[in-house]
Design brief:
Aminopeptidase; 8 strands; 26% helix; globular
């Protein structure tokens, strides 16, 4: 069954045509191929390396799994928007308030074609986005620095520019994993319908004061 808010676009790239599709269902994901385009490299292990993880996420409430795939059905990129995990501090902001862009990933062979920005735009184009705080956590140990061939702080700037294109801003936090390295970052987009009380609670939780 097609999700009522699903968007599907096709674009041409120098690597070939690619289809981008938001709110993919578990069945739609299951019909596509994942293994060939996301094989593991010596110094880089993608956060998501199994198609089953995408399928499981797509079955969660309000989740948006957005895929980029070839006309032949090979997944070459993906992004996911999900509610915070129960063990994370962000759930204290409020029930189903915080939604994380938990990953934006493009296969090495398909980078440089604007697919990441297109994936982020589609995954964050959620019908509830003005009633939610969308956020991302950037940990440098999850970045493909070897494949990108750039320094961590340069990669950080690239991530900032990517998320800023979808109205995300940098926010300070004392979350230990984020503070572990200077290049790590936390960005968020506060929906237009978020109340002052929730926005204040978001600030308190960022510094573990609640």
């Amino acid at each position: 069954m097609v999700h009522p808010y699903q968007k599907r676009v096709e674009r041409e790239t120098r690597q070939g045509n690619v289809i981008l599709c938001s709110f993919c269902s578990p069945d739609e994901i299951a019909s596509l191929s994942f293994r060939e385009t996301f094989s593991r490299y010596a110094r880089y292990n993608p956060i998501i390396s199994k198609k089953e993880t995408l399928i499981e996420t797509a079955s969660k409430p309000d989740a948006n799994v957005t895929l980029a795939f070839t006309p032949e059905g090979k997944i070459v990129g993906f992004a996911m928007l999900v509610y915070s995990a129960p063990e994370e501090r962000w759930v204290r902001v409020g029930e189903r308030v915080m939604m994380e862009v938990s990953v934006v990933e493009v296969s090495r062979e398909w980078r440089g074609a604007g697919i990441s920005k297109a994936l982020l735009r589609l995954v964050s184009d959620h019908p509830l986005k003005e009633d939610r705080i969308l956020y991302m956590v950037g940990y440098s140990w999850t970045w493909d620095l070897d494949g990108a061939g750039i320094a961590p702080m340069t990669y950080r700037d690239m991530m900032i520019n990517l998320f800023a294109s979808c109205e995300f801003k940098i926010f300070q936090t004392n979350e230990p994993n984020i503070m572990m390295r200077p290049e790590n970052l936390f960005m968020a987009r506060i929906g237009a319908n978020i109340s002052e009380a929730v926005a204040k609670r978001f600030k308190m939780v960022r510094f573990n004061l609640s």
